[in-house]
Every structure is written in C-alpha cells, then in structure tokens.
Amino acid sequence: MRNMKKKNLLLVILSVLIALIINNNSLAQSVATAGASANVIIPVSVVKTTDMNFGNAAVSAVGGGIITLAPGGTRTSGAGVTLPATAGTVAPAGFTVTGAPGYTFSITLPSSAVITGPGSAAMTINGFTSLPSGTGTLNAGGSQTLAVGASLNVSAAQVPGTYTNATAVPVTVNYN
Fold first, then answer.
1. C-beta atoms surrounding 41 within 10 Å
2. Contact at 8 Å (CB) between 75 and 124?
3. Residues 6+ apart with CB under 8 A from 168
4. Distance (Å, whole) CA 121 – CA 125
C-alpha cells in the first residue's frame, strides 16, 4: 500500500509538472493576425497634342546661331540667325499627362534630337526644358498639360527648306 501511495504521489507530481510545462509553453507564445490590402491606380500616361515647331528663320552665310523656343511659346535667336516678321508656325511640343488625381509625376526629357532637311542637311536640337519643370501634379480630374521647348542649333549657310524629325522627341513621365 505504501508503494501504491508512492506511485500515486509520483503520478500526481508528474501530472502537475506536465501541466506546468504545457501551461508555460502556451504562455510563451502569442499569435496576432494582420490584414492585407492593395490599391491599384490608373497608370500614368502621356499623349502628344502638338508638335514642336521653331517657325521661320534666316541664317547668315558666314555664321550660324541658336533659336531658343521656350515652353511658353516665345522664341529668341542669337548670332547669325534672324527671326523674320513672318514667324510661320511657332509652337512648343505639347502633351497631356493623365493618371490618378493628385499624384505627382517626374518628367524626363531627351538630351538631344536631330532634324533633317533637303539633301540630308541636319540640325541638332538640345537644351530641352518643360513647363512644369522636372515634376508635375495631376489635377482633380487626373490630368496635366505639359509644354516642352528647346534650342535649335543652326549652322552657317544652313540649306533652306523644311526640316523634320523622323524619330520624334521622346518625353517620359513616371509616378513619383
């Protein structure tokens, strides 16, 4: 009977120890849950509305110069380039940017472009600027107009004629 009591006591002690171990393990761990969500927005896009046009210009036979077309549509010239009173079509490149209302976007302009004319004569366009400059903000309707100007390098005795750009002037926009 004494052995039986010892066995029973031993079983009680083991049961209590097992219960304490199980209880301690359950107190040592904790579980929490988190929800997950995502918000898919309208992709930002840009569409050309107006081609860039530097208008009419006359150039000296002995010295070239630069025509600067501002994003606001004004133009100036220097050195051997004259801007006649009959300006022709003068326009900065125009774009419409669309996307999620209130979002900002970055504007990336090309470093240069080439326009070609009669007999493969060429002129380089560089110094691109935009309005807005660098970053724009989409309005409550999700759009923003973008104007791009640049500088046209005219060589001395540049061949008269119409010059165009077959590869276009790429303007890139990305959400910030």
1. 11
2. no
3. 113
4. 14
